[in-house]
Write a structure and sequence with these properties.
This protein is an all-alpha fold. About 70% of the residues lie in helices and about 0% in strands.
């Protein structure tokens, strides 16, 4: 009987992922550059939201580079086509990408909230924004903790050949669904009319 793993049909889905990632990354770079240029031209200085996005944009570019590098090691291809070494390298790059992604999204969300703070000075406008900023910080850093603490040693996230002790994924998945539901539902209720 033939080995079913011997004849893996070739497929590579990397372009389906990299196309939008690189395209939106280029658009984001141009938008951030235009934002900073126009802010300096108009006011001669940068505000807190500008500085936050200035930090987030290089992290976004690093994330794009990590995504491209992981496709060079086989990300997007069938799992059966990986050698143990390419799998390890791909998982390591994906771990790094997830870490950078968590930080980048947190900074972008903070930047948006900080820019909205300039639209009003009354408590009814500012306090919900402060609450959202605190909530986003708490959620983002909780995911950051999960990223590094869910498996011991942390290298077991990419090195599948070592013994490790990992948290049960069930509660983490439930946590993700609850956070996704609460934050999206909450955002629709606190929008001004």
């Amino acid at each position: 009987m033939a080995d079913p793993m011997a004849a893996v049909p070739y497929s590579n889905k990397a372009a389906i992922y990299l196309g939008p990632v690189v395209s939106f990354g280029v658009v984001a770079l141009f938008l951030v550059t235009a934002r900073i240029y126009t802010r300096i031209q108009r006011t001669g200085k940068l505000f807190l939201d500008d500085w936050i996005i200035v930090v987030a944009e290089p992290l976004s570019l690093i994330g794009i580079c990590l995504a491209i590098a992981s496709t060079a090691y086989g990300w997007g291809k069938p799992a059966a086509s990986f050698t143990p070494e390419t799998l390890k390298q791909t998982l390591r790059l994906q771990f790094a990408l997830q870490t950078v992604w968590l930080l980048t999204l947190w900074l972008v969300r903070l930047s948006v909230a900080c820019s909205l703070l300039r639209f009003g000075t009354e408590r009814l406008w500012r306090w919900p924004l402060y609450f959202i900023m605190g909530l986003q910080t708490t959620i983002s850093w909780s995911y950051f903790v999960i990223q590094f603490a869910q498996c011991t040693p942390v290298s077991s996230n990419w090195d599948t050949g070592i013994s490790s002790k990992c948290w049960d994924l069930g509660p983490i998945v439930i946590y993700g669904w609850v956070i996704a539901g609460k934050t999206s539902r909450g955002a629709t209720h606190i929008r001004p009319n």
